[in-house]
Design brief:
Strand 5 and strand 6 form a beta hairpin. Among the domains are: about 80-120, no CATH class; about 125-198, no CATH class. It is of the alpha+beta class. It has helices spanning about 1-40, 50-75, 100-105, 125-140, 180-195; strands at about 90-95, 115-120, 145, 150-155, 160, 165. Strands 3, 4, 5 and 6 form a four-stranded mixed β-sheet that branches. A two-stranded antiparallel sheet has the order 1-2. It is about 50% helix and about 10% strand. Helix 4 (about 125-140) packs across helix 5. The chain is built from five helices and six strands; from the N terminus they run H-H-E-H-E-H-E-E-E-E-H. One of its GO terms (cellular component) is membrane. InterPro entries: OGFOD3 (IPR039210).
């Protein structure tokens, strides 16, 4: 009988300890569930639509990108004139570069004292532009440039030919190359550009 009594005791003991252990966590979890049910979520209700958080984050990212794109673009660009617009004269001042300011201090009176951007359709007329184009074509036909841009300076007569510069007025058969009207047009345009800022 001893064995049967022992078995009953052991079984009873195990049942008692299991019941006690099982009862304690149940009570704790029941209490925690009750507190969770009574507490409202801090940031509103949980999402009811699948992937609502991902969608909301995507919308916020796109909205932020749109705001940054449209606000940063307007600060950097200033439109002086449109291509189809006829402008009599429009400009604005800009800060001069430090190198230019050094030159201005070193050579007073030789360079313009203001820096800026200027747009005008009346600076050079269409007829003057055609005449200057014709002058350039006739002058550059006598020279050539190797590996770079060809240069023609009517004021000094410098013309790029090969790797060197030559005086266009000392070349043969250039007496009839430019007319008096060509030089008058060049003078008018260069003076209008020179006195543009004043």
């Amino acid at each position: 009988m001893r064995r049967s009594e022992l078995k009953d005791k052991v079984v009873k003991r195990r049942q008692n300890t299991n019941e006690v252990d099982k009862d304690k966590p149940k009570k704790e979890t029941d209490n925690s569930n009750e507190t969770n049910r009574n507490v409202e979520p801090k940031y509103g209700p949980l999402p009811s639509i699948p992937h609502q958080r991902v969608f909301a984050r995507g919308v916020m990212i796109l909205a932020t990108l749109a705001v940054v794109y449209f606000t940063s673009k307007s600060d950097k660009e200033t439109m002086l004139a449109r291509q189809k617009e006829q402008v009599q004269g429009r400009g604005h001042n800009v800060d001069c570069s430090p190198d230019y300011l050094k030159d201005l201090n070193a050579f007073p009176g030789c360079v313009p004292e203001k820096c800026g951007r200027y747009v005008s359709d009346r600076l050079v007329t269409e007829v003057e532009a055609d005449l200057l184009l014709d002058i350039g074509r006739r002058g550059l036909a006598l020279g050539s440039a190797e590996g770079g841009a060809a240069i023609l300076d009517l004021h000094s007569g410098a013309l790029s030919k090969g790797k060197h510069f030559v005086n266009i007025y000392s070349l043969n058969n250039t007496d009839q190359l430019f007319s008096v009207q060509d030089f008058a047009t060049y003078r008018v345009v260069s003076h209008s550009v020179l006195y543009l800022g004043s």
